[in-house]
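Q: Start with the shorter request: fold the first protein.
A: Done. Sequence, then structure:
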Amino acid sequence: MQLYNNLSAKERAALIEEAGQERLTISFYKYAQIGNPELFRNHLFINWNELDVLGRIYVAHEGINAQLSIPAENFELFKAHLDSITFLENVRLNIAMEQDNLSFLKLKVKVRKKIVADGLVDETFDVTNKGIHVGAEKFNELIDDPDTILVDMRNHYESEIGHFKNAITPDVDTFRDSLDIIEKDLADHKEDKKLVMYCTGGIRCEKASAYYKHKGFKQVYQLEGGIIDYTRQVKNKKLENKFLGKNFVFDHRRSERITDDVIANCHQCGNPCDNHVNCANEACHLLFIQCEECAEKMHDCCSDSCKEVHELPFEEQKKLRKGKGASNKIFKKGRSEVLKFKN
């Protein structure tokens, strides 16, 4: 039985457009003990492929982390399948506020060592001893408390385009980088302050809250469902929205607009802008912020050198890339030296 994709992203996009069906973008996670991740991975692929699920799903001995899209008409069947799996019954599903039928174009279910790369090797660390989950209303109360320290557990390129008011936004490239930095910076407040954390959908805070409790923090809280569910609750309950700007997401949409505030700037000209793009030079693919004017001027590229390559015939570009490893600039190089106004 085939347990992999047989269509390219371009072919899949054409089929989605032709079908004209509404798709839902969904994310969820769950920490659980999975004895045979490979077998579980295959089970998910077989069942979800039949439901036309597309997305990026990581499975490990410690649980599952899923970001996906599904035809709206198949949602109930998908939910029923999740509920048939003991540890996923009634799991919280974060449904995107802004839908895009092309948010994912392939189904990738991968077995990993961990569902979130945290770099932790402490055998005494118990991920199930987590912090207190709070909804939007309680979260708003907590972050108004002068005894609260609010921390963004995301990376610099995420918080750059949107974050909560008065949050600490660590200048880090990866989640693993932030854990020790935050502990060191807040070491004097393990006893007297409330440590309140948030991230995109909750999974990084789930791990981080348990880690900081393990490290001696006494009052640890996390935003239930992350920014995604906070936005939904604020809208449904008519609460004050304390988030500014956009929420970065890890699919083809790249972000969801939460408020009209533009808190970032174009990395090339410095004008207000919060649109992430990838450099059009396939050998680069750098993730950075670019306004429409610079996109037109630079032909969607991050630098003059990339622009020169991008303007070459396709076969010439392939020759230049031959023998070279894949670029790893997608999420780390918003700091590239070619960007004059990088963060």
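Q: Next, the second protein, separately.
A: Sequence, then structure:
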Amino acid sequence: MPNPETVRPTDPYDAVLLVSFGGPERPEDVVPFLENVTRGRGIPRERLEVVGEHYYLFGGRSPINDQNRALIAALSADLEAHGIDLPIYWGNRNWDPYLDDVVAQMARDGVRRAACLVTSAYSSWSSCRQYRDNLEAAVAAVPDGLVAPRLDKIRAYYHHPGFVQASVDGVLDALADLPAEVRDDARLVFVTHSIPTAMNDESGPDGGAYLAQHLDVVGVVADAVQEATGVAHERELVFCSRSGSPRTPWLEPDVNDRLAELADEQERTGRRQAVIMVPVGFVSDHMEVAFDLDTEAMATAERLGLTARRSASASTHPAFVAALRELVLERAAAERGEPVERPALGSLPPVADRCPTGCCLPRREQGSANALQQ
């Protein structure tokens, strides 16, 4: 038995690995990046160049890499402030720093086991299982002669109190920015990445987890906002960033379509409609938020005469950063065989540390829910 005095709260981990999607850093990276994302799907280069226009609006640079750098800096500071000495590595699925290269470097550095934080909070094939598969592939690709580290993916954290608090604070700030005369009647329009309905049907161990998790956390956030303001705002969940064949059913409604319906309601009733778009499905303000919400959906709202604001994502909110630390320590304690509490708000239980074999199965017809933007 190990001496309790020698057991660190982070044992058995000697590193943290942040795992993300990746994104282009300059205009000449855009099409090669999109080719990485869509490899094997037969999408013509001409289509990729059209999609690339979204990135060129932002100088050919996705926001996601800079946001990951900021998150690493914030988490490093938080760990240091709590006396935790763990190096943080960062690897991407589709762009530099590539996950395979980073895991090989971890092996060279002597890392034996790492807790892996993914920049996606929910359960589905594209937001969870695919990352798990990426981690397994990166371990398998470690060059001969090196000892590959063991990589443990941290559980989905969409209803962790720290992630929820960051969302609540973002909504409260956005409400405060609205004109007083429309603030109390503002509708909370929660937005997440659409996925094919078949992918949702296979998400989680019993199916339907992706949608169920979002609907549950929408209620949690909206109820917390009501408690803080004393106002019961109408709330709903909508979707953005659909890609793939129009013949494949995806989760709906699209945020722009829903804004159009709300504008029609405003015209019928004569009541001025205000909307807070809440990016509850996104950890940071990457391309789905910067283009689909801040650019496209905001333009739709302005054209339709809707008063709209967009609340902040979790990003580097102190409560979210602290939650990531807590998730690492929670998993470390569990791996040591100690009893642990798994904080989770709402009606759904915490997601298991280890996904069941049949959880979030891939389906060929699902396409790629996050194929063309990050």
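Q: Describe the second briefly.
A: The radius of gyration is 21 Å. Residues 193 and 241 are 6 Å apart (CA to CA).
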